[in-house]
Amino acid sequence: MSIVIRDVREHELDSVLALNNNAGLAILPLDSAKVRRFYEQAEYFRVAERDGNLAGFLVGFGSGADHDSSNFGWFRERYPQFFYIDRIVVASRRRGGGVGRAFYADVQSYAELRYPQLACEVFLDHGADPALLFHGSFGFREIGQHVMAEANVRASMLMKELCSYPWVRDTYGDALPDVPWTQTRALSQPGAQRPTGT
């Protein structure tokens, strides 16, 4: 019954698309081209496996990414350096079983080595209290609200300070130790470079 978090594999993109589009109103729909763009460009694109089955996914981008989300743009206009959680989806049969918490522990471990802040949003128009409580329990706080013009959805913009980042930056700079848990995913886009967080 353990949860395994790992980088997505190309053959899983159709399953990721189906998970996303079955998630309900709290997640914007995707098409296969957008999922492919995530696969080629996202700094963090991991899936959760439970009992050998895909249980969810999380996609994230560093503040220097070429990402077209208006929510990402809202953060970038206000903060110079952050890691942005674009979306997290947990399969309905797996909700409440720890998959979301496992993802947030993993993405924070990734981000705090590279960025001073972790950013995300929660849509407010479709019963947001469970999602707001979940994020509050991880130390996120609302720093504003934004209406996504492209989807006419109001979002609570959330931010969390990553207290380990200054020590990591001062101790290692951009030269993190070469051990498996510090690695970034190999981007499949030709000419893509590993992110440094600066």
TrEMBL record:
Single GO term (MF): acyltransferase activity
Stretches assigned to the N-acetyltransferase domain: 3-164
Protein name according to UniProt: GNAT family N-acetyltransferase
Keyword Lyase: no
InterPro entries membership: Acyl_CoA_acyltransferase (IPR016181), GNAT_dom (IPR000182), UCP028520 (IPR016890)
Domain of life: Bacteria
EC number of this enzyme: 2.3.1.-
Enzyme class: transferase
Key words, A-Z: Acyltransferase, Transferase
